[in-house]
Amino acid sequence: MTNADLAAIKDQARKAAFARRKVASGMHKPGVAGHLSEVLAGYRGVSLSGYMPIRTEIDPLPAMAEASAHGAVGVPVIQGAGLPLKFSRWIPDVPLRDGPFGAKVPEVDDFFDPEILIVPLVAFDAQGGRLGYGGGFYDRTLEGLRAKRSTLAIGFAFDAQEAEALPLEPTDQPLDMVITESRVLQFTR
Known about the structure:
Elements: H1 3-27, H2 34-41, E1 48-49, H3 61-68, E2 73-77, E3 86-89, E4 96-98, E5 104-106, E6 111-112, E7 116-119, E8 123-124, E9 130-131, H4 137-148, E10 152-156, E11 177-179, E12 184-186
Helix pairs in contact: 2-3
Keywords: ATP-binding, Ligase, Magnesium, Metal-binding, Nucleotide-binding
Enzyme class: ligase
Family: Belongs to the 5-formyltetrahydrofolate cyclo-ligase family.
């Protein structure tokens, strides 16, 4: 299979997953982060990064707000194409500015390396595979963080975003856990 073939397959998988996510997001009221809050309660005080939800992404902000009372919480800041993400400290009601791709970021950067990443995604599979937006930001970032120390990657998604088989590459970083509105999936590596 050529790189072009794989890119086309990933593009089709993303389109199908975006459609499923859009339907799922319309069916759920805000506040579906309950399982995420429960899991994060077991890691009180451990530094983590969430994300500012865009479009139809499931919203981690309630769980992030709870976690921020116990330790450092950050959000990703894109530095440029081909570069890993940096993570800037976030607290509820911190002043925000527009970041790339429509995600808000803290107005004043205060970077740190989180030990847990709550990862947005387009699709996931039952083995902890993740299909993202195609920029490779989280894959590069997780690879770098995991080279330094143990880093937990938690995918946060709607059940409807699960796919049977994802077109994955060797550079795609696996998730350690996926949390949905109804369940928590853990993967052993």
